[in-house]
Design a protein that fits this description.
About 40% of the residues lie in helices and about 10% in strands. By secondary structure, it is an alpha+beta fold. The radius of gyration is 23 Å and the shape is globular. The model is unreliable at about 1-20 and about 20-45 (pLDDT under 50).
């Protein structure tokens, strides 16, 4: 009998999103012919099909990598890492949207206004006639979703696909005959981890969400953004406790290797040890704090304030919690959760399945364009600049498409060595970091130390990241002593070292850049091309909605119960 292989049907999953809480994980099972004769492959049962160690492992794996990171994202690119992450990077100004693209990728990253030359604004001011907030509100309808125009829909679909698959797995893992306690606990930790991840993504992007504890289950009591992060932390701590209770590390190692797709188990994506996974959880817990609090640094002012924000400023105690968690977080060389493509049956493709893949070619033809603001985050002489090229010429779009001189090179084809390859379309060569990494952990330690007055140690972490990535630029620890100077280094390095990891928008938001200038926000000193001229001191007034409204596909078909939290951002 052949090994069981699970595949989730896209058509069924998308059709089932009447509301997220009853989103079904639809499996087909190809096994031996005898089984296929006896069981409807589109309606498998756990007792008949998912009743072995291999079966539960593949079910749990498919629920994440296929139901969560693939299905429902076939409109622009073909995975969670191409379209939902695309919105993150558009709003974080790492990329611009190409002309003619759908799914609002040409509009979601467009600022309300910019002044290309603040010293002479005449003829250098652009004002957007379709601000992002109006785009979000006017296209947040079920009809717009059906026409691929509702940007709010996709992340919600993906993350509740993960939650429901994990709930199914948790409800069934105890019934698998012959599964040892520690193997079962590894599967449980897997489910808690990914539920924590999914709730973090919902709580870090949306104004409200749903906490779903069972499958099938209809839940219509919406909770606010902060409660979603609390639930994420609860699930992550459950994963941590469960991992610590595992005594047979051989059973753990066997099971975790079955849960991760084989093509991902290379580079830093190899199956993590128990302690490495625990360190990932601590880093993720720190991320939940950092990304969901304000720590404004606007126009060189580390004491800037933002009015009318969904979230509160970081307190000194928050920074101390981050330091504690990150001291127990990821270390250099730790294995983490990644994604890679394969020649066939991959949950995303090499050319269209990620922001970096879509971007890695000539700026004259790519769907996404490298932003001038990303490239300016790298210092002159930084070896990592080899990831970018001007050989394709300048892409002159309108203001909506972020004209740029830069293309993202295919790092594998170009033969880049000694530095991280940011983009490639070669099968299996590009490493997509799904969860947190050593660099993120180190840069959170850097920021926490800088913000609590330990500037030299904080800058030392930045130096370490630059060394680890082969940047080849002079160290700054001990040379820069001001808070403003240290924060300049920190913001530049997070933009550079963590590019294409789905974090850029959240950084820009918490630093205050995406809030309107009238409320204390804005981004200053930007490089921009306008009317075919290059400007290096532009001021950008993004005015992006800080936390998105709940998608209409949820609230129309699953109306909020009495007492629910608001599902529409009250500040916009």
């Amino acid at each position: 009998m052949k090994n069981i292989k699970f595949k989730f049907f896209k058509e069924k999953v998308v059709a089932k999103l009447a509301y997220a809480t009853i989103l079904a994980s639809i499996l087909s099972i190809s096994s031996c012919k005898k089984q296929l004769d006896q069981v409807n492959p589109n309606a498998p049962t756990f007792s008949g099909n998912v009743n072995t160690e291999t079966g539960i492992a593949q079910f749990a794996m498919g629920g994440i990598y296929w139901n969560g990171f693939n299905y429902g994202d076939g409109w622009l690119g073909d995975s969670y890492f191409s379209l939902p992450w695309g919105y993150h990077e558009l709003m974080g100004d790492v990329i611009g949207g190409g002309q003619g693209s759908n799914n609002q990728t040409t509009t979601m990253g467009v600022p309300d206004q910019f002044v290309a030359d603040p010293t002479n604004s005449s003829g250098t001011t652009f004002t957007n006639t379709a601000p992002q907030v109006s785009i979000i509100r006017s296209f947040n309808t079920t009809a717009a979703t059906a026409n691929s125009n509702n940007a709010l829909y996709y992340e919600w679909l993906n993350m509740y696909g993960i939650v429901n698959a994990c709930n199914q797995t948790l409800q069934q893992v105890g019934s698998i005959s012959g599964l040892s306690t520690d193997k079962a606990n590894t599967v449980k930790a897997w489910c808690y981890w990914w539920k924590g991840y999914a709730y973090a993504q919902i709580g870090t992007l949306y104004y409200a969400g749903l906490i779903v504890d069972a499958y099938p289950s209809k839940v219509n009591s919406f909770v606010n953004q902060a409660a979603m992060i609390t639930e994420s932390n609860k699930q992550l701590n459950l994963a941590l406790t469960t991992l610590k209770a595992i005594s047979n590390q051989s059973d753990y190692a066997t099971m975790i290797a079955e849960l991760i797709p084989q093509q991902c188990q290379t580079g830093l994506g190899k199956a993590p040890s128990n302690i490495q996974w625990q360190r990932s959880i601590n880093t993720m817990l720190a991320r939940n704090i950092v990304l969901n609090h304000l720590s404004p640094f606007v126009n060189g002012n580390p004491a800037a304030t933002i009015s009318k924000s969904t979230i509160t400023p970081m307190a000194a105690s928050d920074w101390q919690n981050v330091i504690t968690l990150c001291n127990a977080g990821l270390q250099k060389g730790d294995y983490v959760f990644t994604g890679r493509t394969s020649a066939s049956n991959s949950f995303f493709t090499n050319s269209g399945g990620s922001v970096a893949g879509l971007c890695a070619s000539s700026n004259q033809t790519t769907t996404y364009k490298v932003s001038e603001r990303l490239v300016q985050s790298f210092k002159t002489g930084d070896n990592r600049l080899a990831n970018f090229s001007t050989s394709s010429g300048t892409f002159y779009g309108d203001a909506n498409t972020n004209s740029t001189r830069w293309s993202l090179v295919d790092g594998v084809t170009a033969g880049l060595t000694g530095i991280p390859i940011l983009g490639s379309r070669q099968v299996g060569k590009l490493e997509i970091y799904i969860g947190p990494t050593y660099e993120e952990n180190a840069l959170m330690l850097a920021e926490a130390n800088i913000r609590t007055g330990n500037i030299a140690p904080g800058l030392a972490y930045i130096d370490q990241v630059r060394v680890s990535q082969g940047a080849g630029i002079p160290a700054v620890s001990g040379l820069i002593t001001s808070l403003t100077g240290a924060m300049n280094e920190l913001t530049m390095e997070r933009m550079a070292a963590l590019a294409f990891r789905g974090l850029s928008y959240y950084d820009a938001r918490r630093w205050g850049w995406t809030y309107p200038i009238a409320n204390g926000g804005g981004r200053y000193g930007c490089t921009i091309i306008y009317n075919k001229n290059v400007y290096t001191n532009a001021t950008i007034n993004y005015n992006f909605m800080d936390y998105w409204d709940v998608p209409a596909d949820e609230i129309v078909k699953n109306p909020p119960a009495a007492g629910s939290a608001a599902v529409k951002n009250a500040n916009y």
